[in-house]
Write a structure and sequence with these properties.
Number of strands: 12
Shape: globular
Radius of gyration: 16 Å
Largest sheet: 5 strands, mixed, barrel
Number of helices: 3
Oligomer: single chain
Order of helices and strands: EHEEEEEEEEEEHHE
Strand order of the largest sheet: 1-5-4-2-8
Length: 188
């Protein structure tokens, strides 16, 4: 398998007592330990880009829980914003997810993990959409390097090109673009 927008499917949310925002890998690992099943890797449709007439769609590397019966469930609340170091997160009733068994975490020699770079699709075939995607890829590269300010710069450039507002993930505390551990006391 690979990233294939034709495989996008709507999945239901399952509320758990332990799910933490922006910690899908740890949340799913805990659920598999408690209830069985497996981790299903893939791509989550996100709405980190806000505009009246969208030109591109963002798909972030993500995982969901596949139950022993083979059904997919979203467990991870999505970070909406950070106010004074407090995370505001919600778990929608449904999510749009593209299963992709090839989208495994990158494992570093030191035992840390890293998520894959987001995927972008043009909703409208246009020069603006292509330039916007280029800017978003540059923002992702900066975030992978731990450069939150550089990511914010490229998100602002993409916002100008696409005519909207893009929330930099680094400002939301999303850490999975840089290496992380899967210890129970550390989210991703």
């Amino acid at each position: 398998m690979s990233f294939d927008i034709k495989r996008a499917t709507q999945i239901k949310a399952l509320h758990t007592e332990f799910s933490e925002p922006a910690s899908c890998y740890l949340n799913i690992r805990k659920q598999v330990q408690k209830r069985g099943g497996r981790t299903a890797f893939g791509w989550l449709k996100t709405d980190v880009i806000f505009w009246e007439r969208p030109k591109i769609q963002t798909w972030i590397h993500h995982c969901v829980w596949e139950s022993p019966e083979g059904k997919l469930f979203e467990l991870t609340p999505f970070v909406q914003k950070v106010i004074d170091d407090s995370i505001i997160a919600t778990l929608s009733d449904t999510s749009i997810f593209i299963p992709d068994d090839d989208a495994q975490l990158i494992k570093h020699p030191d035992g840390r993990f890293q998520s894959l770079t987001p995927q972008y699709t043009a909703i409208v075939n246009s020069e603006e959409a292509e330039k916007g995607i280029e800017c978003m890829k540059a923002a992702d590269k900066k975030l992978r390097q731990g450069d939150v300010r550089g990511e914010a710069y490229w998100c602002e450039r993409a916002s100008q090109v696409l005519g909207g507002w893009i929330q930099p993930l680094g400002e939301l505390g999303v850490k999975t673009m840089t290496p992380f551990t899967l210890d129970d006391d550390e989210g991703n």
